[in-house]
Amino acid sequence: MRYLINENNWYMKRSFVFVCMLLVCQTVFSQSLLPYKNAKLPVEDRVKDLIARMNPEEKFWQLFMIPGDLKDGKEKYKNGIFGFQVSAQGSTDAAGQLLSYKAAANAKETAKLINSMQKYFVEETRLGIPIIAFDEALHGLVRDGATAFPAAIGLSSTWDLPLMNRVATAIARETKSRGIRQILSPVVNIASDVRWGRVEETYGEDPFLSSEMGVAFVSPFEKMGVVTTPKHFLANSGDGGRDSYPIDIDERLLEEVYLAPFEACFKRGGSRSVMTSYNSLNGSPSTANNWLLNEKLKKQMNFSGFIISDASAVGGANVLHYTASDYPDASAKAINNGLDVIFQTAYEHHKLFMPPFLDGRINSKTIDEALARVLRIKFELGLFENPYTNEAEVSKWNGNPAHKVIAKEAALKSMVLLKNENNTLPLQKTIKSVAVIGSDAVEARLGGYSGPGNGKVSILNGIKNKAGKSVNVLYAEGCGRNSPEWVSVPSANLCTTVNGKTQNGLLGEYFNNIQLSGKPVVTRVDNEMHFGWTLYSPHPDINYDFYSVKWTGKIKSPADGIFKIGIDGNDGYRLYLDGKLIIDNWKSQTFTTKLANYHFEKDKEYDIRVEFFESQGYARFKLVWNVGVPDNWQTKINEAVAAAKKADVAVVVAGVEEGESQDRAYLNLPGHQEEMINQIAATGKPVVVVLIGGSAIIMSNWIQNVPSILDAWYPGEEGGDAVADVLFGDYNPAGRLPITFPVFEGQLPLVYNHKPTGRTDDYVNLNGQPLFPFGFGLSYSNFEYSNLRFEKKSFAKTDSTTVYCAIKNTGSRDGEEVAQLYIRDLLSSVAQPVKALKGFQRLFLKAGEAKEIAFRITPDMLKMLNNNMQWVVEPGEFRIMIGASSKDIRLRDVIAWLNNCPSIVRTNIINSSSKRIR
Predict the structure, then answer these.
(1) Which residues are registered as beta bridge partners of 385?
(2) What is the pLDDT of residues 549-571, one digit of tens each?
(3) 810 lies in the same domain as 875
(4) Is 561 found in the same domain as 605?
(5) Which residues pair with 344 in a beta bridge?
(6) How would DSSP label each residue in 690-717?
(7) CATH number where 527 lies
């Protein structure tokens, strides 16, 4: 026993000595660490220490981000870099075979690549600063193997915040597992004009809905350690729905509408970055706008994250806005006025933007403040302690079947039933055949900023999957979205001889005047006459907005016949064939397409001369003909009509063309799709039109001829099965519009929450009301609203009240309803919207079931900007409205907010309600 005790004492003493030595070693090791590498120190101390050790070049590179990796030579990045937009190439099987393996395999390539880059920056650069790998993830990571969810406008159409949270969580897991720690998403711009090509990327026209959806999206990312970047700051579309058009609006409108979703993402969602827009705001580029970035964002809104530019936007100050003399000047103005990080598209661009960081044009304190914002977040993300992603997580989340389940649920809940006369939908189980018509039925388009998706399901395949063998599914392509009447003349059909050598294309002579006079500044061979010099000149030596060109050579046709040939372009142009002038439009007027008939003999060469002048910039120019263009759109329509005649019902899938830099002047269905719908409807067969697109569509030419319309937006990789479930009644649609659909483009901009007009909002030839209002959506069920009651109808100061109502499903099908709460201030010192969304609930009700719902009404929901630009709640009455859309109000009453008024004043406020329309 004594021996055992002594032995134990010996071991205890030895353990004690070991622990002491370990503690000493840890202390020595801790003391030997540079302060910025010591995780035990406060982040601010680490940031300060690291900045003090950095040289000017290293500081610049931490404020410079580009797409790429180290393949172009890692020695180029010896000074470090903010981070890369990383793209590891891969592909998924078209049929979806081995989906999980392929998704994980490509994601693992990305993870390995990012880990290898982190290893270089951490271990081989002087200071070992890790990078932030970033990418786009608007509705799914834009890479192979990532789940493609419905487009943002479709997600907003669900009016389902818990669902949005689950979608974002899935995207965040796929993103972070690859090593990506920042996403350049979401788009929380307000879609105030549906002609804007990027409406599909937004959450719609309403600041409250956009705020709630934005917060539900960014929160899971930020909690998971992935930085979100709401964009584009601020107001990214201008007059006419034009992308990046100059914005000239006052601070009141910015505060009341455009800033709200950004502030919600920052303060409630935790977003730690923001991206500026390309446009100017009240005369200053958003990337270099001191009032917007320094005063409003950093000081008034207390934003502590970092601000990045949109890609190549900083240089826009000198090449677009003309507020900077050159690229270095644009760089200096941007950083001095509040931008933190310059986002460019190539490594070589650093030469344009670095000089003012080194020559004193940017104050060193300003540089250090921007740098602190970036480094602070790199420390917060834990990148200095653990810069590597766990590659084992890749297979767990990428290709995860659960994410496809969420994608389908999101697609189902995003569907908006716009019309359903005679109960055309759902399709009867007794039908024997269905004609599916339209190229969009097989394309399974996912919308802008999308990856390829994982085994995406087309609408045709979804219907076939649903119908099985009992229903004959006929398919006809139809006329498609585009039915071109001409194409660009191919390079192979053009030739010129230079120094005795014949080559494809035409010889172009460029002049720095608009008269084709003098000696050409540039002479070169242009392979094809298809130009879009909208943001730049044809050559650095040529004026941006004042030049002319003469092209000469030979042209030959691959066929005999009389064909149309001409020019599609703007400003002045002339076309000669064999010395004869056949097109003369030598005037600067507007964009035109002019064609002339010309008899071509197969393979015969004809002399061609094309002349063009540009006197204001933004040149678009194409040499076009209709050689080889089949005039078969009517044939395609005839085939579609024939298919419809053979079927019990026709499902026409029609779509639009839109996206970034693709704003729409016309909102009708492009090509000959409207004619096709009407000709199919004329057969007398029931017609269901399924719309594919991300914004409003006008329907005046065909809506009265079809009984049913379903807006599927861009429904994601599971969209085909989701559409089929809705069509055949296995899912009862309940999506609601997050935008207003106009009757005609002339009504635009048209939003539900406008302020009161001074007189009328009608036109002499058109009512001012929309085709479909904000919040609209039908169901296969009917819902009854009743029993409006309040916890109390007056409250004061910081107190709140609750409004209740009952909703009953009076239909024969289980379904969902989206109850919407709107509020109007009945008397205010500054005019307020006619109604404003302040709450919504999506609830499921079985057939015949009723539930009571409640909305909490707080003073914050009643606030307004007064004449002193202060957010206040003014004492008085507020109309409370609950309904199925902004136009379909079912219940309403008035409450009073009293601000602790004397009792006699309170009584007067309440009694005054009888004197005013309530």
Answers:
(1) none
(2) 999 999 999 999 999 999 999 88
(3) yes
(4) yes
(5) none
(6) EEESSS----TTTGGG-SEEEE--S--T
(7) 2.60.120.380
